[in-house]
């Protein structure tokens, strides 16, 4: 076992990632379709910053139920208000809905305090106009569009358009999956959630760029020394960076998990939950997509180039499709050649 772990850290493993990805992508496609379907059927639970309206929070007591609160606010015209009892730290009642005509945020807060049997000064209120909500939603959409455009330009200049396309498809996969989870479980989307989505895209791209950079390096060195197909080249590169991706994911997920468990569930900081859930899902899915979504798509596109098509054809004709093990051996030899000091020249005999 220890020997396998050492090989994993050195990048000497020979796992067929692209071969496995064909089966893994089936499950991934089904999961994304379920998420997208829930997005269209249930919709998103947008916060008041995007929809407008008001949110009132009051301390919760044992002898008051959410039904009591719902009936109380319905008497002042908020029949469609959403009432939640949030536990963790100190239990609170949260009421969200549109401000009734003829009422103010203070009057609704007084009614909520009366129903919750608490002092009106303990009730917090927050209201946002619908026009401001539309403005925030528009800025969020524009931020996402600008992000995709800039990343596409950078990756095209840094690598090539095929890799830029693969990276953007992987990011779109991550966002669709994460947003679908929010729609499926009706988690509230706030500006903090949008920030988390942008963070997810940055992390996913970082992991993908690490893989692409390794592929480009190996393409310059290994493909000239071996009769290697692009699939073998991609597999060797993935084996080299897999442990780095795992370590990066673990060190990123642990703080986010503690933020979610300790900050949100234990201390009752519910505002952290909206941010932490998106980050936790996105970090895990982003690591997966860089290996099983981005790289297989790039490999599919690159294998249609004349050079790599000829490599595939030559490997089939010679019946020696370069295995990943042979490619890894060639890489090890290349490393040895680079690290070994030059041999001293033998002095010739004087005549």
Protein architecture, described:
- By secondary structure, this protein is α+β, with helices and mostly antiparallel strands.
- Helices cover 70% and strands 8% of the residues.
- The chain folds into 2 domains: 2-45 and 132-309, Multidrug efflux transporter AcrB transmembrane domain (Multidrug efflux transporter AcrB transmembrane fold, Up-down Bundle); 53-128, Alpha-Beta Plaits, CATH 3.30.70.
- It has helices at 2-10, 17-41, 48-51, 66-74, 105-116, 130-158, 161-185, 191-225, 230-266, 270-302, 306-317, 324-339, and strands spanning 45-46, 53-59, 82-86, 92-97, 124-128, 188-189.
- The strands form 2 sheets. The protein has a 4-stranded antiparallel β-sheet. Strands 1-6 form a two-stranded parallel ribbon.
């Amino acid at each position: 076992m220890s020997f396998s772990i050492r090989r994993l850290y050195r990048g000497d493993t020979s796992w067929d990632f692209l071969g496995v990805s064909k089966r893994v992508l089936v499950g991934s496609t089904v999961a994304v379709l379920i998420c997208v379907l829930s997005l269209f059927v249930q919709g998103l639970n947008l916060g008041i910053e995007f929809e407008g309206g008001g949110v009132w929070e009051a301390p919760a007591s044992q002898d008051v139920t959410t039904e009591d609160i719902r009936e109380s606010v319905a008497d002042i015209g908020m029949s469609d208000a959403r009432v939640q009892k949030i536990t963790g730290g100190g239990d609170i009642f949260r009421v969200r809905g549109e401000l009734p005509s003829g009422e103010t945020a203070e009057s609704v807060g007084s009614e909520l305090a009366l129903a919750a049997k608490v002092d009106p000064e303990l009730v917090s209120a927050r209201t946002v106009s619908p026009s401001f909500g539309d403005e925030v939603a528009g800025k969020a959409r524009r931020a996402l569009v600008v992000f995709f455009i800039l990343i596409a330009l950078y990756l095209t200049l840094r690598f090539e358009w095929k890799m830029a396309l693969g990276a953007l498809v992987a990011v779109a996969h991550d966002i669709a999956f994460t947003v679908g989870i929010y729609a499926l479980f009706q988690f509230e989307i706030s500006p903090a959630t949008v920030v988390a989505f942008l963070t997810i895209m940055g992390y996913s791209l970082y992991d993908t760029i690490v893989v692409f950079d390794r592929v480009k390096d190996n393409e310059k060195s290994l493909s000239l020394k071996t009769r290697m197909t692009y699939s073998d080249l991609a597999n060797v590169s993935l084996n080299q960076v897999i442990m780095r991706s795992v370590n990066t994911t673990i060190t990123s997920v642990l703080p986010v998990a503690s933020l979610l468990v300790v900050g949100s569930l234990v201390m009752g900081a519910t505002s952290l939950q909206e941010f932490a859930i998106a980050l936790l899902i996105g970090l895990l899915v982003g690591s997966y997509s860089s290996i099983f979504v981005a790289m297989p798509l790039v490999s599919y596109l690159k294998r249609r180039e004349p050079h790599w098509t000829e490599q595939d054809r030559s490997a089939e004709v010679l019946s020696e499709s370069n295995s990943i093990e042979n490619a890894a051996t060639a890489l090890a030899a290349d490393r040895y050649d680079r690290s070994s000091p030059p041999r001293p020249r033998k002095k010739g005999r004087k005549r």
